[in-house]
Amino acid sequence: MPDAAELERVLRSAGLRVTRPRLAVLDAVHAHPHVDTETLIAAARARLGAVSHQAVYDVLAVLTERGLVRRIQPQGSLARYEARVGDDHHHLVCRSCGAITDVDGATGDVLCLTPPVGGGFLVDSAEVFYWGRCRSCATTPADLPDTRAQRGTP
Q: pTM score, two decimals?
């Protein structure tokens, strides 16, 4: 995890001013992969004392726009943010608890990852979510209630 000096360097190299909210949010995203905005707000407040929801949302928008964080949103889930950017990786999502794990991008000739020719698009990225149950949830007896419906997860 980068220290404060490295986070400052990252912000400056992206052409951004170094501010306390930007440092707090960027640090929290590095510390907690696949974190939602409420958790980021709490982390920023723990570090800074007071910071508004809007300030955190504004920081996330700028960090995402500049490519310093990546926003993902699995179907039925809140938006999540991660610091792993600049590579082609995908995500495993647990249908039961909502845990998200990074997996390296598929390689080779994978038909479903090859966009069709034509259509007027120049494809520059793809998002892939693999759905299943994490190791912990997979060992839970099947007769326990499934929480997917409560969270709106497929």
A: 0.80
- Report how far apart, in Å, the C-alpha atoms of 71 and of each of 74, 84, 97, 100, 138 are: 10, 10, 20, 13, 27
* Backbone angle region of 139, left / alpha / beta, with phi > 0 → left and psi within -120 to 50 → alpha: alpha
In sequence order, what E strands does the chain have? 35-36, 70-72, 80-82, 89-94, 100-104, 129-132
Residue 49 Ramachandran class (φ > 0 left, ψ -120 to 50 alpha, else beta): left
User: Tokens 């997979």 — which residue?
Assistant: 138
* 8 A C-beta contact, residue 94 and residue 137: yes
Mean pLDDT by 10 residues, the chain (154 residues): 93 96 96 93 93 95 96 92 90 92 78 70 81 90 52 49
